[in-house]
Amino acid sequence: MILLPRGNPVKENIDPGKVQLPDALQKLQKGNFTGYLRFDTTRGVGILIYDKGRLISALFEGASEREIAYDAIALIFECSLAGNANLNIYRLSSELAMSIHALLHGQVLYKGQEVKLLDIRGLLGKMKEDKITGCLRIYTSDHIALIFYREGSPLGFFHDGSTDLEKSAENSLSVAKLPGAKIDVLTAQVSEEATMADLQASADIRALWQKAHENVTRDKRSREAEVARSLEEREKDRRQKVLGLLKGVAEKSLGRIGAQLADKEFTRAMNGQGVVSESVLDDFYQRLGKAAKLVAGPSTVKQMVDEMQRGIKALMKTD
Amino acid sequence: MDWNIVQLVLWLIAGIVSFYFSIGNARVWTSIAVGFGLILLGELLPQAMPFLPGASSPQIEAMSYILGTISILVMSHGFQEYYVFSRTLELEGNKLLVYVATLGVIFASMIFILINPDPTPSTLKVIRVVEDTNWVFLSLINIDLIRKIYINVKDSPISKGFIAFMLVFIFIFLWRGSELYIQVYDLANPDVSRLFPFRYELSQICSNVGNLLAGLSVAGTFIYLARLLR
C-alpha cells in the first residue's frame, strides 16, 4: 500500500475505466501539470508523478507485485479498464513532486513503528548522525504526513491538502499525536530534475492503452467463458441428478424397462436443450406416461409420475 | 353338458374384455385385442349357424374360417409390434389404422367369397386347413416372441401377463394342431376313424380340451391383464 498525503485535489473519485487515459495524460502534459495521479485499484495502487508536464515517475504496487516505469503504466491502464478503480489527481509543487518521486523509489529502513513506543528524539538524532536523505512518514488510518530530510536536516513537511513543502510542523505533529499513529523511515534517491526522463514522451502511451484494452477484453472473454463453462458443468451435473432420480423412480415402478423408457424419453424431451426446465419435465411426463401404459396401468403410471414430481421438487430445493 | 356352449361363453368373455381392454391403450394392444375379438366371431359364427335362419350358406362358413385366419394374423402383428417396442422402446402408428386395415381385409375377403363360385365341402375343408395351419405355426412363433417379450419386460407390472399369454398359445396350439391333424388325415371320415380309432379319439379329446383350455386361459388372461393394468 502506497501511503501518500492527498495534496491539493484537482479531481477526485473518477472512474479511470470511463476515461480515455491517453487523452487525459496528454492534457496534463500540455497543461504543464505538476502533481500526482493516484489509482486505487483492486490489484493495488498506481502512482503517476508529473513535473511541469513531464511524467517523471510511474509506480504500481500490489500485494505481490511492484512495477515501475512502462510496466507500471501498462498495469495502471489494465487495472483501470478492468473496473472498480478510483482515480484522484492532486496538484503539488515541483519540489514536492520530486521529493515524492525520490521517496517512492527509495528504500524502507523502518516500517510501522508505533509512535508511542518510539524514542523520537533518538530517531531524529540518528538520522542527523547518519545524514539520511529521505523522510519520516507518520500515519494513521485516516491521515498521513511526511517530513522530508536532506542529509539529516529537515527540509519541510507534507500533509493532506498541502501543495508545497511547509515549514510548520504543526499538522504533521498533530498526526503523530493521534491514537495508533505509526512511523516509517524511508531513504530517498535524489535525482536531478534535469536528468529525469519523460516517460510519456518516450513511451507510446496509446499503444500501451490499446494493449491494455486487448488484455482486458481477452481476460473478460476468458472469464465469461469460464463462467459459461462452470454454468454448463453445473447444469450437466443437475441434469444427471434429475435423470438419475427419474430413472430410479421409473425402475422402481416399471422395472428395468422403466429406467430405459425414462432415459429415452428424457433425452427426447430435452431435445438438445441445455437446461432442465418445467416445460421439459412436463413433456417428459407426458411422453413417459404414454409409453408406460404398455407395461403398467394408469394408477401405477400416475403414482410413478407423482413420485417423480415430488422428488424433482425436493431436488430443486436442495440444489 | 354342451362344451360348445361353455367354450362360446369363454370366448365371449375374452372377446368383450379384449375389446374393452383395447380402449385407451396403445396400438400394439389394439392389434392383440382385435385379434382375440375376431376369434370370438370366427368361433361364434359356425356355432350359431344352425340357429340362424338363412345363415347356413357355405359363404358364411367360409367367412368364419377366414375370420379365424385374420384373427391370428392381426394378433401376431400385435405381438410383433410389442416385441419391437420392448427392444427399441419405440411406439408407432395409430389405432384407427388397425381397425380400418382389419375391416378392409375382412371386406376384401367377403368380396372374394361372393364373386367366386359357392364353396363346396372340399373348398371349405381347404380354407379350414389354411386357417388351422396358420394358427398352428403362428402359435409356435408367438410363443417364442412372447418369451422374448417377457425377458425384456421381466420385472414390469405386466410381465406375468405374458406368461399367461404363452399358456394361451400353448393351448391354442394343442387345439388347432389336433384339428389340423384330423383334417389332414381325414380322421373325421368314419371309414378312416374306424381304422385309427385311438388316434381319432385322442385328437378329438386334445382338440376339445385345447379349445376349452384356450378359451379359459384367454378369458382369464384378459381379466388378469385388465386387473394388472387397472
Automatic annotation (TrEMBL), chain A:
This is GTPase-activating protein. It comes from Geothermobacter hydrogeniphilus.
UniProtKB/TrEMBL annotation, chain B:
It comes from the Bacteria. The chain crosses the membrane at residues 6-23, 28-45, 65-84, 96-115, 162-182, 202-226. Keywords: Membrane, Transmembrane, Transmembrane helix. This is Uncharacterized protein. It comes from Geothermobacter hydrogeniphilus.
